Every structure is written in C-alpha cells, then in structure tokens.
Amino acid sequence: MRMLVLADDPAAFLLTPRPAPGDADCEYEPLPPGLTLNDAVLLRAHQVRAGDLVVAEFSEDRGAGRVAAHIPAPYPADPHFLSACPCDGCEECEDFDASGFADPQTAIDRDARWLCLAPSVDGEPCAVAFRNAPLAVIPAATAQARTGQPTA
User: CA dihedral in degrees (4, 59, 18, 42; nearest 10)?
Assistant: First the structure.
C-alpha cells in the first residue's frame, strides 16, 4: 500500500494493492505488462492528460484516509469537456442532460465542474469525473517508456 498526497489537500490517499486477476471471481484486468502501481501518481481529474492510464479513483470518506477504488479495466484518458462529448448519448451523458445540464445556459457550469475522461466504448458509459476528483494515473510518458507502446 502506498500513501499519496496532493499539494493542496492534507488528506492521505491510500493506493491499495490491485485485486489479483488470478482469482476466480475477480473482474479486474491486470495492468499492462511492465507497469505497476509504483508507476502511478496522484492527480486531480482536470490535470489528467491524453494517454494517461487511469487506474483508480478515491472514496469521498475523509475519516481514516481516502482509499483507492480500483478501475476494473484501466483506460487511457481522452479528456474533454462534457458538452463536447463524442459519445452517441450514453447512459451517463443522458443522465446529465436529464438533470438540466443540456440547457445551453447551464453547459458552461457543467463544463466548469465535470470532465469526460474517456468516451463510451462497447456500450459502456463514458468515464465522467468531477474536475477536482483525485485519481491515480500512470502518466502516458511513463507507460510508453516502460512498455515501448503508447497507451491509446
């Protein structure tokens, strides 16, 4: 387990070991060969760049530290404003639209608060995050240096 910190937040962010994909009931994909959680850094969602590999988000509980919630299938980020989401109306984006965020008057507010980190793929919803949400990511440059391949 690693403790990660942000310069602007006194909370401890605990990056726990990733669930083992060898377990029969485990739904977590392994990290790409050559990458480990030791390569991960802590960023806010608005600091994530294209190609960074998103591996975990963190609970909102500030009590005993914020614990990692591992992403079952780590994904390369392709961040963009929610109003410019290229998906074809996934469930996540439709929920935002249904809650009034489709109104052009509120689109600026929506884009100031939320980001789409990766558009929907194969019927899965987009990966949407609050812009200040802390995330564990493996930077694209690190992933490429370790694996010899870009993440995207």
Answer: -30
Residue 152 covered by a domain: no
Q: Is residue 31 part of a domain?
A: yes
Give the residue, 23 or 112, on which the prediction is more confident. Answer: 112
The answer to the question of residue 139 being in a domain is yes
107 or 66, which is more confident? 66
pTM as predicted: 0.87
The count of structural domains within the chain is 1
Domain range for residue 28?
2-147
Per DSSP, the three-state class of 34 is coil
d(CA 76, CA 53): 4
If you average pLDDT over residues 70-89, what whole number do you get? Answer: 87
Is 25 among the domain residues?
yes
Task: Kindly list the distances between the CA atom of residue 7 and the CA atoms of 10, 27, 42, 68, 80, in Å, as whole numbers in the listed order.
Answer: 8, 33, 10, 18, 24
Query: What whole-number distance in Å separates Cα of residue 4 and Cα of residue 40?
Result: 9
- Nearest CA to 48 among 148, 144, 107, 128? 128
